[in-house]
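INFO  loader      accepted 1 record
INFO  loader      residues=414
INFO  predictor   begin
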Amino acid sequence: MTSKTNKTTSNLKRTIFHIDMDAFFASIEQRDFPQYRDKPVIVGAKPGTRGVVCAASYEARRFGVRSAMPVKEAFRRCPQGIFVPPRGGVYSGVSKLVMEILVSFSPVIEKVSIDEAFIDMSGTQRLFGPPLETAQKISRAINEKLELTASIGIAPNKFLSKIASDFNKPDGITATPFDQQEIEKWLAPLAVGKLWGVGEKTQYALHCINIRTVYDLQQIELDFLVSRFGKQGESLYYLCRGIDERPVGEDESAKSISREFTFPSDCSDKEEWKSTLLALSQDVAQRARRKGVKGDTVVLCYRRPDFSRHSKRLKLPYPSDLSKVIYEHGVKILSGIEESSLRLIGIGITDFDADVQTDLFSAFPQTQALEASEKAVDKVIERFGKNCIRKGTQMKMRNPELRDKNNASPPSQG
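INFO  predictor   done
INFO  writer      dumping tokens
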């Protein structure tokens, strides 16, 4: 294992920005409705219902209101808050405008969620100036064009830029060191829970062996961490030193393709579940065809109103990248779960077989016809846009961001 301690730090030559929109949903509401400005705005379900908070303005956060908190608790903490229903279509539209601004600075972008993205700004100094100056230009562009603010982290990799963007919220710009020794010193005082992949269970396990800060973790040998935490131990060893070599952009080595959608409030309409699965299945299938992969297993995931997350799998008779196949098997799984209400639903495919040829199953006439049909639709959509073709089921959907834009990424509020 000791040879891995020589892992390259060539990522220090890169310049990566993490753009994190500030209280995105709530800020849009305050922008669009001036009477809400400087007041505690809480986006989510109405008080008195079993829903949750989707987003809270910084004025509301001073009262301890946070995303995913039950509305009942949010109202208890902030009864004077302004509770407004989410406008998913509006938020998706603004998100698209944010990404258009970012693309004008660099084409190498990784959209993480509706309100955050990584940008690789390496080699752009001649165009926009030093990193800090460039970040200021991006911040001004977002503020002037959209009347919103963003917090920006500047670092040599994705992990460090993500941490940096949280330092001076809202509307702050933070740069990490770019020297390896200085990076380790910069990380050292942080709580170990700041590291990617350290959830409550891992944090508790680390606390049990007296590791509470990143500095504590930096003192531990790689062999010990691997023996104690397996593959995650290796990741912890490098992250606590600020080493992260992942490129900005879609991960081509992904082992699965999936999409999820969080309902604005707990949904008990099973037809709505199915229509949502249809839209998600179509997007999953299109992504699979673009990557040239087929999945051997369909995975359905869902979140109950109590926020517990569950997933079920169903093996396909043959690998597929067809939305009809993915959807029908998803519905089959759905029929077997005993839930009266869902907060989130998602579907995906996994167990890719790289050796499967695209015409391997052409012996099945029905499969061949379906593949030809869906590929034809892909070409039409590529030329005229997603909204040019919609199934009747989609026309009835209540979720406009799925019906019109098929934008099903769950939000991540900053």
